[in-house]
Inverse folding.
């Protein structure tokens, strides 16, 4: 016989079966639940502590998931096994490989905060749930998906550089909920170059089919109705720099701005620009033109308050301190190189194909088949007058020796306590995972007023187990 309390059951969400049982405790008589009592015991322990007990290892995860859905407490299981707070950058190791259907290699990867994964490969998008157990694949109208963003576990925004429009896709049915277009002056198609989002807004970078104009459109994330247009650019004559489309969009929550960056390759090398757009005014509050060692890839870390790039010539990581930015134009001197400055004028383009992404308090940069991890080292005191002193970042190589190397990395993404990696010419996704640690109880400090006994009746070996909740009062 198992025992629990009414107060324990009320720790669950109000729409859960556990909470409903507690709410009905004033009614006399037992409560019958025709489910597996062993799994019930594990979920009860999860409810009490927020952690799965050690005996849960004896059960298949899918059985626990299905049982948690029956009791409507799957969120507890997700919190226990795939919580972003469990992500430990220095504790990541390659844990599994997720195969994809077909022969196409991944072109774009999108995740949700608690680990749902969407992978674009060819004209298909394959989705994995937070447990990475359930997989589904839909066929899109695109020849190849170049930009992908997870709006929710079952909804994504997708676009391509050779197909007009930004599509909002239902990833369970493949149905196109809505197609968003930018109406340019030439009335030609509008191709998606990048997608980004804040908590309430969706951003999309468009380029006209004639490739002579571009813009960044802002939409309401709930209704997908247009809110604003920023960054409209037109090419005049031979001045290609006047209208480089943004190929990366990232929201900077602390500043309330959108970082938009783009580059192109010409006879004089690779050039580009980085802009911070204020949505309230619709204007760029800061801009940096890239001529020397332009970025192969670039990202922004809100936690570290810096823009970080990997140089296309040098292959070295550099950053701009967001706390020291002034208004208007920036200077290339604002970049602080964390590696060998002598490589900045390298003509070998050692950084070509490198990827860089910020997550939490770290920056991850791919170099061929390996990953560098950059973290800030706190030097001295952290008093307010010391906040703008020179910053020190240190580099570490990711993973154990057996995890190192492999084909060139093409995508880095993060969700839950995991990092996802795709590689050139491989029809799969690598999962790098932190070890799961227990979480504290969901609620504490409440006096327990009632006891509920759980009794299991075994009628015969061939009959269904019946769980009975008998309410007692003390």
């Amino acid at each position: 016989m198992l025992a629990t309390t009414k107060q324990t059951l009320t720790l669950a969400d109000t729409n859960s079966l556990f909470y409903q049982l507690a709410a009905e405790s004033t009614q006399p008589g037992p409560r019958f639940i025709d489910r597996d009592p062993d799994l019930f015991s594990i979920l009860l322990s999860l409810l009490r502590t927020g952690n799965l007990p050690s005996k849960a290892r004896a059960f298949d995860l899918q059985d626990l998931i299905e049982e948690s859905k029956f009791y409507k407490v799957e969120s507890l299981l997700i919190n226990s096994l795939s919580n972003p707070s469990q992500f430990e950058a220095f504790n990541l190791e390659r844990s599994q490989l997720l195969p994809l259907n077909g022969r196409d290699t991944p072109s774009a990867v999108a995740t949700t905060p608690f680990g749902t994964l969407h992978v674009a490969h060819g004209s298909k998008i394959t989705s994995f749930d937070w447990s990475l157990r359930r997989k589904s694949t839909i066929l899109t109208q695109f020849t190849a998906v170049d930009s992908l963003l997870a709006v929710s576990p079952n909804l994504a925004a997708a676009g391509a550089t050779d197909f007009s429009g930004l599509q909002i896709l239902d990833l369970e049915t493949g149905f196109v909920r809505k197609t968003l277009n930018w109406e340019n002056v030439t009335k030609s198609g509008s191709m998606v170059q990048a997608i980004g989002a804040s908590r309430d807004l969706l951003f999309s970078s468009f380029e006209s089919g004639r490739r002579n104009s571009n813009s960044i459109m802002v939409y309401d994330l709930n209704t997908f109705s247009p809110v604003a247009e920023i960054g409209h650019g037109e090419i005049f004559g031979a001045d290609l720099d006047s209208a480089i489309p943004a190929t990366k969009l990232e929201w900077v929550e602390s500043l309330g701005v959108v970082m938009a960056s783009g580059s192109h390759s010409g006879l004089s090398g690779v050039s580009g620009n980085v802009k911070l757009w204020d949505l309230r005014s619709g204007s760029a509050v800061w801009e940096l033109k890239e001529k020397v060692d332009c970025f192969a890839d670039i990202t922004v870390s809100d936690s570290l308050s810096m823009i970080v790039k990997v140089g296309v010539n040098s292959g070295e990581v550099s950053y701009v301190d967001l706390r020291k930015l002034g208004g208007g134009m920036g200077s290339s001197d604002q970049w602080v190189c964390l590696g060998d400055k002598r490589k900045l004028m390298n003509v070998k383009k050692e950084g070509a194909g490198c990827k860089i992404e910020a997550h939490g308090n770290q920056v991850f940069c791919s170099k061929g088949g390996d990953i560098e991890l950059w973290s800030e080292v706190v030097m001295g005191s952290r008093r307010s007058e010391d906040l703008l002193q020179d910053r020190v970042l240190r580099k570490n190589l990711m993973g154990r020796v057996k995890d190192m190397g492999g084909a060139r990395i093409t995508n880095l993404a993060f969700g839950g306590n995991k990092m996802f990696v795709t590689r050139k010419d491989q029809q799969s996704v690598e999962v790098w995972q932190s070890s799961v640690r227990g979480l504290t109880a969901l609620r504490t400090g409440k006096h327990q007023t009632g006891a509920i006994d759980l009794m299991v009746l075994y009628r015969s070996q061939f009959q269904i187990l019946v769980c009975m909740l008998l309410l007692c009062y003390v």
Remarks:
- The chain is about 10% helix and 45% strand.
